[in-house]
Amino acid sequence: MEITRPRLFLILCLLVHSSSLKILKRQKRNWIIDSFTIREDHEGGFPYELGLLQVENKFSFSKIHGQGVEEEPKNILKINENTGMLTVHGPVDYEKFRVLKLTFQAYDQEKKEIDTQLGVEILIIDANDNPPIFEHDRYEVSIEESTPQGTEFTIIKANDDDSTENNRLFDFKIISVIPDPFDLEFYLTQFKSTATVSFKGCLDHEKADAYIIKVEAKDRGEEVQLSSFATIIINIEDGNNHLPVITGQSGSGRVKEGEENVLVKRLQVTDRDTKGTSAWRAKYQIKEDENRNFKITTDPETNEGLLYVEKPLDYEESHEKHLNISVQNEAPYYSCKVEKRSTTGLWKVNTIGSNTLTLSTTKVTVIVEDVNDPPIFDMTNKHVTLAENTKAGLYLATFAATDPDPDSSASTIVYTKGDDPADWVTVDPKTGNITTTEIIDRESHFVKDNTYKVTIYAADNGLPPMTGTATLNIHITDENDNVPRLTETTLDICQSDGLSQANITAFDLDQDPFGGPFSFKLQEKEKGKWKIDPTQGYTTKLVKERTVHSGEYDLVLKVSGLQGEEAVYNLSVIVCNCVDITKPNCRILKAKGSGVGGGAVGIIFLSMLLLSAVLLLVFLLTCKTEYQPMPDHNDSRLGHLSNIEKPGTDCNVELVYRRKLPRRPSKRKPSIDAGGQHVTNQQWDHFYRLKMEQRYQRWCSWQEAWARHADQEINVMQHTMILKVLQDKLYALSAPEEELGDYDPHNYTEEGDEKHNFDLDAISIPDIPSDPELDLDLDFKFDTLASICLSSKRPCLQYKT
After folding, report:
1. 320-329 and 360-369 as β-strands: parallel, antiparallel, unpaired?
2. Are 397 and 453 in contact (CB under 8 A)?
3. pLDDT at 55
4. Contact status, residue 332 vs residue 295, Cβ threshold 8 Å
5. What parts of the sequence cross the membrane (predicted)?
6. Cα 524–Cα 529–Cα 534 angle in degrees, nearest 5
7. Among candidate residues 109, 121, 103, 105, the one with its CA nearest the CA of residue 51
8. Would you tell me how many other CB atoms lie within 10 Å of the CB of residue 784?
9. CA–CA separation, 461 vs 458, rounded Å?
10. Which residues of 9-48 are buried (b: 16+ CB within 10 A; e: fewer)?
11. SS3 531
12. Is residue 659 a contact partner of residue 610, using CB atoms and an 8 Å limit?
């Protein structure tokens, strides 16, 4: 519903009329009473009566609320509820409370609050109850003795918390100075609440090294003035107002020529300034030392001047050195003297600085003693140029030296060679002529930057002998005396579906124009298998054609230099399947995967088994000493064949070789021996057994020696064979595409070709030695004996690598 403007105006008028009635009604019940004052510096006792609250209507009871009652400052004001008398129970600080505002509440006889409020104001009158307070109770400052008058060297500050102007403002004043200053007056310059401290006249550390100044700050209160005090301590640092004076010198004053860093003199000084300060420490200066052969320092303990020879002196140049040495202090000299005082402004003083002073000076004489000086070369460095490969005996240069000593007419100078690392030159000891003794090679590692250096000495015969040194610089020009070289002649190339190649780099020790670029060329027979691309340059590539398979190849490469010099090199090239084609390396055995395959484990196991079998065979071939029974053909009572001379040797092996021995006649007629004695069959059998035993022993001894020799040779061949088998098997593992045990045959010769250039070692086994005494008709029972004695003749293996 829209409200029209006349209706809205009517509503506003009614609201204003209602509020006005309430205000008028409340104003009719307010009373205004007089204000009271309280002096901040009330000197009477507490409590005291401030005044009676008087109102138009009389009430039975009254109370007050606000500042001074339950608000800060609390419990200062109280009212008699029956009479309305206000009392003050403590002081009030004007700087915190300028006025106290209270509310008076009236009650009727029935102690009912009457809707009447009275406002009470109590004004606080300011009093001078705060003295000026310094920012610091104690100030301390140090100033140099040479500080000029009028310098402001410190600032003091104070503050007064009173409010009224007279009580708040204050003045600074110097009360006392201890000790009493002489030719000196301190004064203050005030600006509002701060003041600077200065002085008139001259400071003198010798008269007083410190001053204590008492300063007062006093306010301008009308009834009473309050004040406070601070102390200023001024330390006077000793200045250089006394010059050092040289009083003497000590020391030999002598030095040998050629010596350096030698103390020759000590200079003594006196100074009345404080020891250890910059005003006391001496600083010396040397005059008339054009060559700067001397230096002088200061002893920090004694303040003495220490005169040193810094650069060697030459007796032949001067026998004596005369020096003038002056002294002053590290701190500049300053002197102040008061000439006239005045009540206003600064005083008139006279100051003296270092620029107007005459320093203390003394003369020092240093005597130079003569010693034997080394010979002096007319030129300490000489340069010669020659071509390399020049024949020995070439004259290069002559070094000449003279003796600078005065009595050098009787001296003899001998020339010798010092540093000659390649021993290429010789020096004539009398003339100093230098000639070559060897052919000089520019490419030698003793030559640096085409220059070879030789050190030459010249020694005199003085006491002690002295030596001078010079250097000969031999500059060597290059010749074309080197052929091109290859950085590497062993190459690895990987099998790949793409381009297979290896880099070949050539270099020449000679300089341009005797070096590269180079020309590369393979033999004609390599065409279709290998090629060089490019054929010229410093680096080329050996490219493998697809017809070349894995294996080792020997290639011949000719490298030619820019001037036509050439060299032929044998390239050892290995082609293999690489694990990483970016890093060819065919000389490392590679296995599939990260571990050893089952085939390799089998090969290793079989090799170990074969080695164990060989060791077992050697063990079985070991001969042991024992007696072997030999059965008889007809009669078992014949006993055993035994060695009556020494124990026999029996080799327990299978029968590998058998020879039919002669059989003994089964019967033999009795015969007559040489002595005419009759020999029976039994005696003949006994004799026959002894004879056979002796022959058996000789037989076995020979077979045993032969067997030892054969065993050693067989063991070596078997060991070589095992290593070869292992090598072939492991190499087969390195080629992933080849099967185990699949070997390429080695062609030693072609069928029908009787010419060959190889030999096979042969091991020959000697036949059984022929012994007529062994040609007996022995029966089959001696076969066992024969097998034992012939046990060493067994099949032999021959393998040639």
Report:
1. antiparallel
2. no
3. 61
4. no
5. 596-621
6. 75
7. 121
8. 14
9. 10
10. eeeeeeeeeeeeeeeeeeeeeeeebeebebebeeeeeeee
11. strand
12. no
> Do the Cβ atoms of 433 and 411 come closer than 8 Å?
no
- Please state the φ and ψ torsions of residue 700, each to the nearest 5 degrees: -65, -35
- Give the max Cα distance, the chain: 202
Q: Which of 581, 590, 577, 576 is nearest to 733 (CA)?
A: 590
For all residues of the chain together, what is the average pLDDT?
Answer: 76
Summarised one tens digit per residue, pLDDT across range 516-563 is 788 898 888 888 888 888 888 888 888 888 888 888 888 889 888 877
DSSP letter at 663 equals B
- Write out pLDDT tens, residues 657-703: 333 334 444 444 444 444 444 555 565 566 566 666 666 676 666 66
Label each residue of 224-280 as H, E or C: CCCEEEEEEEEEEECCECCCCEEEEEECCCEEECCCCCEEEEEEEEECCCCCCCCCC
> To 10 degrees, the CA torsion angle through 717, 723, 727, 728?
40
Strands in 75-167 per DSSP E: 77-79, 85-88, 99-107, 113-125, 133-134, 138-144, 154-159
What is the distance between the alpha carbons of residues 66 and 117, in angstroms, rounded to a whole number?
13
Region at 688 (left for phi over 0; alpha for psi -120 to 50; beta for the rest): alpha
**Residue 682: what pLDDT?**
61
Q: Read off the tokens for 117.
A: 């409020």
How would you class 152 by CB atoms within 10 Å of its CB: exposed for 0-12, middle for 13-18, buried for 19 or more? Answer: exposed
> Coil, helix or strand for 19?
helix
CA-to-CA distance for 132 and 155, rounded, in angstroms? Answer: 16
Chain CA centroid to CA 173, Å: 67
Between 570 and 464, the higher pLDDT residue = 570
Residues 670 and 681: beta-carbon distance below 8 Å? yes
Beta strand pairing call for 113-125 and 31-32:
parallel
Contacts 24+ apart (CB under 8 A), 315-318: 315/257, 315/368, 315/369, 315/370, 315/371, 315/373, 316/257, 316/370, 316/373, 316/404, 316/405, 316/406, 318/368
With cut-offs at 50, 70 and 90, classify the pLDDT of residue 786: low
User: Of 501, 590, 596, which is closest to residue 543 (Cα–Cα)?
Assistant: 501
Higher-pLDDT residue of 693, 329: 329
Q: Flag whether the pTM goes above 0.85.
A: no
> Which residues touch 582 (CB under 8 Å, ≥6 apart)?
none
Long-range CB contacts (within 8 A, 24+) of 694-699: 694/644, 694/645, 695/771, 695/773, 695/774, 696/641, 696/643, 696/648, 696/785, 696/789, 697/643, 697/645, 697/646, 697/648, 699/774, 699/789
Q: How far apart are CA 61 and CA 104, in angstroms?
A: 11
pLDDT at residue 274 greater than cutoff 60? yes
Terminal-to-terminal C-alpha distance of the chain:
128
CA atoms within 13 A on the CB side of 539: 5
Give residues with Cβ within 8 angstroms of 401, minimum separation 6: 375, 376, 377, 378, 413, 415, 432, 458, 468, 470
- Residue 512 near residue 490, CB atoms below 8 Å: no
In this model, does residue 195 exceed pLDDT 90? yes
Residue-level pLDDT at 405: 74
Q: How many CB atoms lie within 10 A of CB 147?
A: 18
Virtual torsion, Cα 687, 688, 689, 690, nearest 10 deg: 50
